[in-house]
C-alpha cells in the first residue's frame, strides 16, 4: 500500500485560513484500498457562505459521499476549503455544485454525490443535490439522513 503523504503542505502544521475558495488548496492522499467500492462521507452541519446580493450569511448542512478511485481527499485541506466560503458570496446552487465539481476534478472518484440542505432565507429553504452518475453496482450507499426542513411544525 502506498501511504506516501510527503507532498502534503497542511497536515500536522499551522495553516492560515484561505480567504476564498479560489485561494484554498485541496490536497489528496493515496487510497489504501483502490478498487474496493466503499463510501467515504463528510458531514458538514455548519457550512456558511454569503448571499451574493445582500452579503447576509447563509447556512447549510452539507453531506458529501464519494467512492474513491486512486485518491482520498485530505480532510484538513477539505475543512479549510469549506470554511473559506464564509466570506464568499454565491447562491446556494453555485456553492453546492462548485464544491462537488472541485472534488471530482481533484479525486477522479468512482462516484460522488453531494446534498446541500440549506436553511431558510426569505422563508424558503433551498436544497441542492447532485451526483456524478449511477454508483458502481453493489456499492452500499446509505441515506444521507437529513430530514426535509419542517420549521417549527
Automatic annotation (TrEMBL):
The active site is at 51 (thioimide intermediate), 58 (proton donor). Its main location: cytoplasm. Substrate binds at residues 73-75, 92-93. GO terms for molecular function: preQ1 synthase activity. It holds the Pfam family QueF. Belongs to the GTP cyclohydrolase I family. QueF type 1 subfamily. Catalyzes the NADPH-dependent reduction of 7-cyano-7-deazaguanine (preQ0) to 7-aminomethyl-7-deazaguanine (preQ1). This is NADPH-dependent 7-cyano-7-deazaguanine reductase. The lineage of its organism: Bacteria, Pseudomonadati, Pseudomonadota, Alphaproteobacteria, Acetobacterales.
Amino acid at each position: 500500500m502506498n501511504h506516501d503523504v510527503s507532498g502534503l503542505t497542511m497536515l500536522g502544521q499551522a495553516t492560515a485560513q484561505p480567504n476564498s475558495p479560489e485561494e484554498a488548496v485541496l490536497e489528496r492522499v493515496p487510497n489504501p484500498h483502490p478498487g474496493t467500492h466503499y463510501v467515504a462521507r463528510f458531514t458538514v452541519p455548519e457550512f456558511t457562505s454569503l448571499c451574493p446580493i445582500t452579503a447576509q450569511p447563509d447556512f447549510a448542512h452539507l453531506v458529501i459521499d464519494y467512492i474513491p478511485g486512486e485518491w482520498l481527499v485530505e480532510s484538513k485541506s477539505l475543512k479549510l476549503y469549506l470554511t473559506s466560503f464564509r466570506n464568499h458570496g454565491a447562491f446556494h446552487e453555485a456553492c453546492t455544485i462548485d464544491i462537488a465539481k472541485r472534488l471530482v476534478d481533484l479525486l477522479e472518484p468512482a462516484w460522488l454525490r453531494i446534498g446541500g440542505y440549506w436553511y431558510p432565507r426569505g422563508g424558503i429553504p433551498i436544497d441542492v443535490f447532485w451526483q456524478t452518475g449511477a454508483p458502481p453496482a453493489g456499492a452500499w450507499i446509505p441515506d444521507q439522513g437529513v430530514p426535509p426542513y419542517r420549521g417549527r411544525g
